[in-house]
């Protein structure tokens, strides 16, 4: 949460805590230089040290001050799938600031293998999970600054077509599951 400060703190292994997201920095032994590889990690154990990759530094959304990260959207999607029987091929979300239907919100673009029987229930499950994982988002929903998540089903191959159009198709490239702008969302909207 302090990565984008002018002089963010650096932590050595003996200073890390479990359950906290950290930006992973590769440095020399003496710490003279450091290189941000762009991943966020969370330690699951400190004795022995074990960690899991939780997302990418450039994949977040905070258009409304909610600071939603990759791990939270992945968990929310898994929660919705588990409780509705839907099968999801791929998804992404983007903020919708100027919502013609009222309050701003997060738009989730979802390519389903199998759609849920009740799309409103699917959206509700996603929104409940995000609120559980992110107190800032929950406050914005409760305060009626944001409306709950909006789910937009997209046609098959929408995400593959996006990757092809941007010369990113292949194993080394992944669909960004969230962003802080509308460039990907607008591309999708122009094709559905």
Structure, described:
The chain is an alpha+beta fold and 192 residues long. 28% of the residues lie in helices and 29% in strands. The protein has helices at residues 70-84, 119-133, 135-142, 158-165, 183-189, and strands spanning 21-27, 34-46, 49-56, 60-61, 68-69, 87-96, 105-114, 150-153. It has a 3-stranded antiparallel sheet, with no helix packed on it. The longest helix is centred in the middle third of the chain and has 15 residues, at 70-84. It is globular.
Percentage of residues in strands: 25-35%
Q: Whole-Å distance between the termini?
A: 36 Å
Total DSSP E strands? 8
Low-confidence stretches: none
State the helical fraction: 25-40%
Shape, per Cα inertia axes? globular
Order of helices and strands: EEEEEHEEHHEHH
Strands side by side in the biggest sheet: 1-2-3
Blueprint of the fold:
Layout (H helix, E strand, L loop, with lengths): L20 E7 L6 E13 L2 E8 L3 E2 L6 E2 H15 L2 E10 L8 E10 L4 H15 L1 H8 L7 E4 L4 H8 L17 H7 L3
Parallel strand pairs: 7-8
Antiparallel strand pairs: 1-2, 2-3, 4-5, 6-7
């Amino acid at each position: 949460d302090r990565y984008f400060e002018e002089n963010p703190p650096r932590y050595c292994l003996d200073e890390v805590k479990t359950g906290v997201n950290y930006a992973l920095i590769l440095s020399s032994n003496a710490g003279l230089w450091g290189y941000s590889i762009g991943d966020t990690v969370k330690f699951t154990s400190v004795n022995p040290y074990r960690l899991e990759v939780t997302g990418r530094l450039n994949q977040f959304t905070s258009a409304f001050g909610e600071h939603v990260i990759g791990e939270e959207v992945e968990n929310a999607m898994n929660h919705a799938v588990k409780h509705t029987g839907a099968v999801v091929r791929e998804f992404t979300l983007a903020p919708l600031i100027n919502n013609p239907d009222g309050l701003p919100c997060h738009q989730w673009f979802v390519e389903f293998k199998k759609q849920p029987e009740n799309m409103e229930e699917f959206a509700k499950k996603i929104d409940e999970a995000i609120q559980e994982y992110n107190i800032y988002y929950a406050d914005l929903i409760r305060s009626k600054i944001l409306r709950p998540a909006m789910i937009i089903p997209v046609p098959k191959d929408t995400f593959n077509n996006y990757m092809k159009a941007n010369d990113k198709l292949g194993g080394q490239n992944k669909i960004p599951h969230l962003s802080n702008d509308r460039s990907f969302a607008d591309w999708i909207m122009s094709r559905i």
